[in-house]
Amino acid sequence: MILDKSIENRVFQRIESSKIGKIYNSNDFYNIYPEESVRKAFQRLEKQGKMVRLGRGLYLFPRHDPRLGVIYPSIAEIATQISRKEKLRIIPTGQQALLQLGLSIQVPMKSIYLTDGGPRNIKIGNRTLVFKPTTPKMLSLKGKISGLMIQALKTLGKEAITKDIENKLAALLATENPFIAEADAMLAPAWIRAIMIKLIKTK
């Protein structure tokens, strides 16, 4: 199939007028141009350095720095964009959960998110975003803070929980609806549930 150059130009005009750092796939233009034409347009735009391919069917409209080259959005922002675009539920685990809660400043080279979608590895510069399928129970958590907290505590382990960490967690939980936080805590392992309930009641 020969790509209509005008489609490529019009696709990029629409992309260029939007937010830098936004992620696209061919479905974003399905109601305007044939999907195959859009896919080929993305491929050509990638070769021209105007788009960055993140994975199958996923392209980033990047910000460029004269010295540093492509500046990628954070892993958390990319994961959120993909989840919204593909209607997935996700929750970060491990070091990514600690980072998002402010309990760590270490940016992980591999960030693992639990999801109700299929497994996928996405290369983002020198980092990797991993979507790992999990059970519905793990994704039934309602609170943004409490859901992250459960994953963060799992990563730290019971013996690593200090008074300073508890104080930080209590401050974070103070921003969450207590009924939602308590409901989420009931789905956590017993030792995490005990910590969270104590913090909810004392905040």
Describe how the helices and strands are arranged.
Blueprint: H1 5-16, E1 23-24, H2 35-47, E2 52-55, E3 58-60, E4 63-65, E5 69-71, H3 75-86, E6 90-92, H4 94-101, E7 110-115, E8 120-124, E9 127-133, H5 144-156, H6 163-173, H7 178-185, H8 190-202
Parallel strand pairs: 7-9
Antiparallel strand pairs: 1-3, 2-3, 4-5, 6-7, 8-9
Helix pairs in contact: 1-2, 4-5, 5-7, 6-8, 7-8
Structure notes:
With 203 residues, the chain is of the alpha+beta class. The chain folds into 3 domains: 10-65, Arc Repressor Mutant, subunit A, CATH 1.10.10; 74-140, no CATH class; 141-203, no CATH class. The protein is 44% helix and 18% strand. It has helices at 5-16, 35-47, 75-86, 94-101, 144-156, 163-173, 178-185, 190-202, and strands at 23-24, 52-55, 58-60, 63-65, 69-71, 90-92, 110-115, 120-124, 127-133. A hairpin with a 2-residue loop joins strand 8 (120-124) and strand 9 (127-133). Helix 1 (5-16) crosses helix 2. The N and C termini lie far apart (63 Å). The mean pLDDT is 90.
Key words describing this protein structure:
203 residues, alpha+beta, four-stranded mixed β-sheet, three-stranded antiparallel β-sheet, 44% helix, elongated
Q: Quickly count the domains.
A: 3
| Mean of pLDDT | 90
Largest beta sheet: strand ordering: 6-7-9-8
Largest sheet: 4 strands, mixed
So what's the overall shape? elongated
Q: Structural class from helices and strands?
A: alpha+beta
Helix content: 40-55%
Oligomer: single chain
Report the total helices.
Answer: 8
Q: Strand content of the residues, in percent?
A: 15-25%
Report, as a whole number of angstroms, the end-to-end distance.
Answer: 63 Å
Low-confidence regions: none
Strands, total number: 9
Rg estimate, integer Å: 20 Å
What is the ordering of alpha helices and beta strands? HEHEEEEHEHEEEHHHH
